[in-house]
Specification:
inorganic pyrophosphatase (n-terminal core); six-stranded mixed beta sheet; six-stranded parallel beta sheet; globular; alpha/beta; Diaminopimelate Epimerase, Chain A, domain 1; 2 domains; 334 residues
Length: 334
């Protein structure tokens, strides 16, 4: 019995897509799972096509993601029309064409992803392998490498391990047995010391000021909830960092961090995964006025600032979340 599922038909169909004179560009919305998956597909293509590159549609600002790029030597550039013009075939991993507006400049022939397909946006590509039951696209790509008898080198194995680790939140978020098998298989080849270095690179030095601000502005909701409005911010990554930090506070079962980034209200939800489903909460509270949803323990909502009709942002968000008027700090002590 094979360690992984057999992908004979899928491998044959995928490799038939590649010609010796082809120039392929792998396009991603860069995060650890996407970067690890892109490296794996690049390894698969490497000896089958004339050239293969990786391009991203987003700026990479999170320190851990920057550390991953540096330590694992992940080559990638921003996707622009000039970059696109250098290639004649396009692939996508860990995403779908409707997930980012900048994807529309490419016509994708290969799409491999683990996110659910929305019925109103069916995936159209000559080769598409979408498996929403998987916890990470890196796990899917590991199965392809195994079926093609490609043993990942240390850097590739480390990138895939970190991709699985982040997208499953160290197996605290949704995963299946295939994710566990992929992680176990890769860990034998990966450099786990580098993984620890990447994990420890969580904060920019100039972000430290935001901790002080969050402590001043935080308001407890009931016995186990926390709400913090951070005003205007340079990046939503700051909200993610703070929300992840507050999950480590004993006695809190959920927290909501929010702020305004470039005329858009961003709300980050975190929960312990035991009580309320934060993805459902995000959809219920903000789904009627913006994009909202996520997983049981982690979710996100994004709302155009103009949709608040000039109402004070903090008061509006708190009322939506709790159904109550925003209390004064004196009535909502630390």
């Amino acid at each position: 019995m094979s360690y992984f599922r057999k992908l004979t038909n899928e491998v044959n169909r995928l490799t038939q897509m590649f010609g010796r004179d082809d120039k392929w560009l792998i396009v991603i919305n860069a995060d650890p799972d996407a970067m690890g998956s892109a490296l794996a597909l690049r390894r698969i293509m490497a000896r089958r096509v004339a050239d293969v590159g990786i391009a991203r549609v987003n700026e990479i600002k999170r320190p851990d993601n920057l550390a991953m790029m540096r330590f694992l030597r992940i080559p990638n550039v921003m996707l622009t029309p000039a970059v696109k013009a250098q290639y004649d075939h396009f692939a996508m991993v860990d995403s779908q064409p409707t997930h980012h507006p900048d994807f529309k400049i490419c016509d994708f022939s290969v799409i491999i992803d683990h996110h659910p397909v929305k019925p109103e946006f069916p995936v159209k590509a000559a080769f598409a392998d979408i498996r929403p039951d998987y916890g990470a696209t890196s796990s899917i790509m590991t199965e392809y490498l195994y079926n093609m008898r490609i043993r990942p080198g240390k850097l590739l194995a480390t990138a895939l391990v970190y991709g699985i680790k982040t997208d499953t939140q160290s197996f605290e978020r949704h995963f299946i047995e295939a994710d566990v098998k992929a992680f176990s298989y890769l860990a034998k080849c990966a450099d786990m010391q580098v993984v620890r270095k990447i994990i420890s690179s969580e904060y920019h030095r100039h972000w430290l000021k935001y901790f002080s601000k969050a402590f001043r502005k935080m308001r407890f909701v009931g016995q186990r909830g926390l709400f913090v409005y951070m005003d205007n911010l340079e990046s939503p990554d700051i909200l993610v960092m703070l929300a992840d930090f507050f999950t480590r506070v004993h006695g809190l079962s959920w927290n909501v961090l929010c702020g305004v980034i470039k005329k858009q209200v961003v709300v980050i939800f975190r929960g312990d995964g035991i009580g309320r489903n934060m993805g459902h909460v995000a959809s219920k509270v903000f789904g009627d006025i913006g994009s909202a949803g996520g997983h049981r323990g982690a979710a996100r909502a994004e709302i155009e600032l103009e949709k608040l009709g000039g109402k004070p942002v903090e008061e509006f968000l708190y009322k939506r979340l709790t159904g109550k008027k925003l209390p004064t700090k004196e009535k909502c002590p630390i």
